[in-house]
Amino acid sequence: MSLILRPPESSDEPRCRELHAQLALEDFEFLHRDGPWAQVLAETEREARGVDLPEGRVPCDFLLAEVDGVIVGRVSIRRALNDFLLEVGGHVGYAVAPEHRRRGHATEILRQSVARLADAGVTRVLVTCDDDNIASAAVIEACGGVLEDVRTAPDAAPKRRYWIQATAAAG
Length: 171
What we know:
Blueprint: E1 3-6, H1 13-24, H2 37-49, E2 60-67, E3 70-78, H3 83-89, E4 92-96, H4 105-119, E5 124-130, H5 134-142, E6 146-151, E7 159-165
Antiparallel strand pairs: 1-2, 2-3, 3-4, 5-7, 6-7
């Protein structure tokens, strides 16, 4: 398995919209925004550059996880934390399509995300998951996550909050 993280491209729209609909059934948004695909790509790039961010947004890389030419998931890598992210959102939010789970993809997505944050100067990475999401908790722990606590925000499920010591990628 050679998983790569890469920005979305024009040709990715059908698969991304398919995954968005599929994960919506699990109350998870694959895409952060709706609208015409060109606008989605432009806003994603602007957010990655940290330019003209809407209120409540931080500089963030939205990347697709691809294995052998197939998009298997996605990740949001937030290079800063606002109050909400510090409380329950964290630096990294990832998802793997149901048909690609239990193959190590989530662990590799998180591992690469932590290395990217280390390369960006983040030394401690906050990763959260729903308190009842045992699979995600196992992924975070496999990547070195140490549970700090469980917190509840208004209108949200209780979240486990883990910290990972970030190490820059080799090479």
